[in-house]
């Protein structure tokens, strides 16, 4: 089992990330721990406002959202009952067992995994400490749960089992040594990776000091449909002599690769969601980040980000190499939100960016300040201000937050009356 813990400054954003998956039919809310009712009986608004109610107890805590993902080996077949038990055990062990938390089972990846959403503010308004929780409490919890539930141990599982060694660039480039070095890399990459074009193939090969070269468009090699392979150094500079594709035993010619392109397009489809979700999760809750931070985060998850720039340093392309699923994707093939342009914008988002338009709409619809007064004060079970039901009143008191994400709805703010000065004071 692999556990990933993130904290953020927006409970709404963390919550809606999972609720959007639910609406798309690729996730289920399987548990609402420490809520007054089962998850299936709670509305979206009730699930959210229970968390907001606690967050409102301590305005000084800005990073009040907690988002955890528990990831299991693809070989493990876990029932929802198992996932609930694991969730409760994990939250108990990291000190969040008494907090309200929601558990979502996602079905959008090649391995079983769940997401847990909670809040860092306790019922008494105390801030729950999460400093170093990942390497301290979470690591101990993970290891114990692997034993208790007989799970595949993350320490024994090679998270990055890719063992191809880079073709070593030496001072003397003898043709035999160069050919052997390139051949070793080609044998591993072409057989194992799912790429659909020469640039995507190069996105992998370049990481091991090898490049496939078609030549310039007006060159004889390009016009004849030829393909050469050559070594490159760490700076991406060509070194050594190029070798024709037909000279290798694997025959990695452009014609033969083209046949693989079509087959790989179909084979890599199940792996798309893992890359997209990893990118989304890395950017979730980040008010402002950098492309470098994103690439480092993806690298820790086994995804290498290959960025293409022109001579002026302008980024015009991005490719993702997932070393765990052995799939390669050009950014735009994953969707507009993952293209080079969109990723740069998402790394420094602003309120009007299209990628966040749906989130803004959700904020508006979920914020009582934008609803009528009756809805804001009348509770979440369809009651109104005149309702005499004790059950509804109790539910309202439990769910309805006095403040949401640090701000009080304008309808609920009390207005301070100005004292009128007496006539004697005015004179």
TrEMBL record:
Domain MobA/VirD2-like nuclease: 17-151
Pfam families reported in the protein's UniProt record: Relaxase
Region Disordered: start-end pairs: 395-427
Origin: domain of life: Bacteria
Biased composition (Basic residues): 413-427
Name of this protein: MobA/VirD2-like nuclease domain-containing protein
């Amino acid at each position: 089992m692999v556990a990933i813990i993130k904290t953020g400054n927006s409970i709404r954003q963390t919550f809606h990330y999972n609720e959007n998956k639910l609406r798309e039919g690729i996730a289920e809310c399987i548990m609402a721990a420490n809520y007054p009712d089962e998850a299936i009986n709670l509305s979206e608004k009730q699930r959210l406002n229970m968390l907001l109610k606690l967050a409102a107890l301590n305005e000084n805590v800005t990073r009040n959202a907690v988002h955890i993902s528990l990831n299991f080996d693809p070989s493990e077949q876990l029932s929802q009952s198992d996932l609930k038990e694991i969730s409760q055990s994990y939250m108990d062990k990291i000190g969040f067992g008494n907090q309200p938390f929601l558990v979502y089972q996602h079905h959008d990846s090649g391995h079983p995994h769940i997401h847990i959403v909670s809040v860092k503010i306790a019922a008494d308004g105390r801030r729950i400490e999460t400093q170093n929780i990942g390497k301290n409490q979470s690591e101990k919890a993970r290891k114990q749960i692997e034993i208790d539930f007989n799970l595949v141990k993350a320490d024994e599982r090679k998270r990055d089992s890719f063992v191809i060694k880079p073709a070593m660039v030496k001072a003397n480039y003898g043709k035999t040594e160069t050919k052997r070095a390139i051949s070793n890399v080609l044998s591993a990459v072409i057989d194992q990776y799912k790429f659909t074009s020469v640039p995507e193939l190069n996105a992998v090969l370049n990481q091991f000091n090898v490049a496939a070269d078609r030549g310039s468009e007006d060159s004889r090699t390009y016009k004849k449909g030829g393909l050469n392979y050559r070594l490159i150094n760490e700076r991406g500079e060509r070194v050594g002599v190029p070798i024709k594709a037909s000279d290798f035993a694997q025959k990695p010619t452009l014609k033969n690769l083209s046949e693989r392109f079509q087959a790989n397009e179909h084979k890599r489809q199940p792996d798309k969601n893992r890359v997209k979700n990893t990118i989304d999760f890395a950017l979730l809750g980040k008010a402002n980040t950098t492309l470098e931070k994103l690439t480092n985060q993806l690298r820790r998850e086994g995804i290498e980000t290959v960025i293409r720039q022109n001579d002026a340093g302008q980024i015009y392309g991005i490719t993702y190499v997932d070393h765990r699923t052995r799939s390669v994707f050009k950014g735009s093939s994953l969707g507009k939100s993952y293209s080079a342009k969109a990723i740069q914008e998402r790394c420094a988002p602003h309120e009007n960016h299209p990628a966040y338009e749906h989130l803004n709409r959700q904020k508006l619809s979920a914020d009582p300040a934008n609803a009528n007064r009756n809805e804001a004060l009348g509770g979440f079970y369809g009651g109104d201000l005149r309702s005499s039901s004790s059950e509804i009143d109790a539910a309202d008191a439990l769910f309805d937050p006095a403040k949401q994400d640090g701000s009080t709805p304008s309808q609920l703010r009390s207005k301070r009356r100005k004292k009128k000065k007496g006539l004697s004071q005015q004179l």
